[in-house]
Design goal:
Low-confidence stretches: none
Radius of gyration: 22 Å
Structural class: alpha/beta
Strand content: 5-15%
Strand order of the largest sheet: 10-11-12-13-15-14
Largest sheet: 6 strands, mixed
Mean pLDDT: 94
Length: 472
């Protein structure tokens, strides 16, 4: 029995179809969840002795599905996309172009196909309980069972967790539901360690002042976005801050030193007016990949996922896949350079939003980055902007960026609290984009679309009305 019993029958059927294939074309999305989905599926197929080739697509539309069909594979496995594009996929299936196997977690279209593994079809939330990588992992476990090893492929749970964290599935900082079952399997075979620690990004790699200065999870006046304030806070503590003149990192501290910093940071947050419920989020659940070297980007699930996003958003999904598959030489070096560039672009993008500000409709806020922010990262910038000065953290944010001469990329971000109140950005993006001749989708908390250039104002008007309906 796999980690998600509700999906066992479907996963088994999909696994049998794949092992019966002479060869498989594996097509996957390019973000962190898509890259880990592909790596999990590719590794499982290789271990099952199934010849395959991997291709990545930034988006899956009619044109891209046609290009996949032109590869003339009898069997195509779609990971981290495919469910929402079943209309076009099944048209090719009916034409005899290929037989699809879909392992996805996005909202399915109305069309049906025989080999369709999706948590939403079994009442499991695909936005918070099982990611695309999680669906691939369920399939990988079924592939192992199909080839005589019912406990096989559990080592791939680490990548599934990276995918889930990268897909923002940690609810209040913790993976839940089917994701939690996958964490349990990874912990059981020693590739994952689930613990409680400071819930700030960069604990493995950032010098202590940078760790605190750049922390956006909980903003502490006088520390967050304040280099001298962060240094001053640390210098008040009774711990050694440097080794051989270099700032220590969080990973370099002893347990007692970590406790000192964490408790002092919590106290400082409360002193500076951070509400207790929010300040408590400074400490949370962390996921450590125990086979990776301490102090590297790959040791922490959150940092690993950010590294993967950096490769994908600069058209180097091949580099991200290589890192996921265990390559630690040139591919890892290239990934780190891409991450440096990614961070620089995100910082510049966020500064632009702070400088230019956002416009407000009745229920949403939005900005148009034009060609100043890459369309592949504008959604991340929008999410980072939520709650900074001048941006309202209590309403969803929509960002526009130039995709090409004819099309505009739209990205939308919300918060867990808004989702709890009824926000579903997937529905908003889908309906508002189609109303202006485009298309979109995604998750309740984060979604995207592509629309014809020039339709931004009408899109905003429609999206604003839809959010109004959802939030009452």
């Amino acid at each position: 029995m796999g980690p998600v019993p509700e999906l066992d029958d479907t996963a088994g059927a999909c696994a049998r179809r794949l092992t019966d294939a002479d060869a498989v074309l594996l097509a996957s999305h390019i973000d962190a969840d898509g890259l880990t989905s592909a790596a999990i599926a590719s590794t499982a197929l290789e271990r099952a002795g199934v010849p395959h080739e991997v291709v990545f697509k930034k988006q899956l539309d009619e044109t891209e599905i046609a290009s996949i069909a032109a590869r003339e594979y009898d069997t195509v496995l779609f990971t981290d996309f495919g469910s929402g594009q079943l209309d076009d996929i099944t048209a090719h299936e009916e034409a005899g172009d290929f037989e699809p196997v879909v392992a996805d977690h996005h909202q399915p279209a109305d069309a049906e196909t025989q080999y369709h593994l999706n948590p939403l079809l079994e009442g499991i939330d695909g936005a918070s309980e099982l990611s695309g990588a999680g669906a691939s992992y369920v399939l990988a476990r079924a592939l192992a069972a199909e080839t005589g090893d019912p406990d096989g492929n559990r080592d791939l749970a680490a990548l599934a967790v990276v995918g889930a964290v990268g897909d923002m599935q940690a609810v209040e900082g913790e993976l839940v539901g089917a994701n939690s079952a996958i964490v349990g399997e990874g912990s059981a075979v020693g590739v994952l360690d689930e613990g409680t620690d400071l819930a700030l990004y960069g604990k493995q790699t950032r010098p202590l002042p940078r760790l605190l200065e750049y922390a956006s999870e909980v903003r502490i006046p006088g520390v967050t976005n304040d280099e001298q304030g962060a240094i001053g806070f640390l210098e008040e503590l009774p711990i050694e801050l440097r080794t051989d003149g270099e700032w220590r990192r969080w990973v370099d501290l002893s347990d007692a030193e970590k406790q000192t910093v964490a408790s002092s940071l919590l106290q400082r947050a409360l002193e500076r007016g951070v509400p207790p419920g929010k300040a408590e989020r400074l400490v949370g659940t962390t996921y450590t990949l125990t086979d990776e070297q301490p102090g590297t980007t790959l040791r922490d699930a959150s940092e690993f996922s950010t590294l993967l996003n950096a490769t994908a958003r600069y058209e180097r999904a091949d580099v991200g896949l290589a890192v996921c598959l265990g390559h630690r030489g040139a591919a890892f070096d290239r990934a780190r350079k891409l991450l440096e560039n990614h961070r620089r672009n995100l910082s510049e993008g966020l500064e632009q939003v702070k400088r230019e500000g956002v416009e407000r409709a009745d229920h949403i806020q939005y900005f148009d980055a034009g060609g100043e922010i890459r369309e592949t990262i504008v959604g991340i910038v929008a999410g980072m902007a939520l709650g900074v000065e001048g941006v309202d953290g209590s309403r969803p944010i929509i960002a526009f960026a130039e995709k090409n001469d004819e099309e505009t990329k739209v990205s939308a971000r919300g918060t867990g609290r808004l989702v709890g109140q009824g926000l579903d950005l997937s529905a908003v993006m889908t309906e508002a984009s189609r109303a202006v001749g485009g298309d979109g989708g995604g998750h309740d908390i984060a979604a995207g679309a592509t629309i014809p250039t020039g339709e931004e104002a009408e899109f905003v008007e429609t999206a604003d009305a839809l959010v109004a309906e959802q939030l009452g």
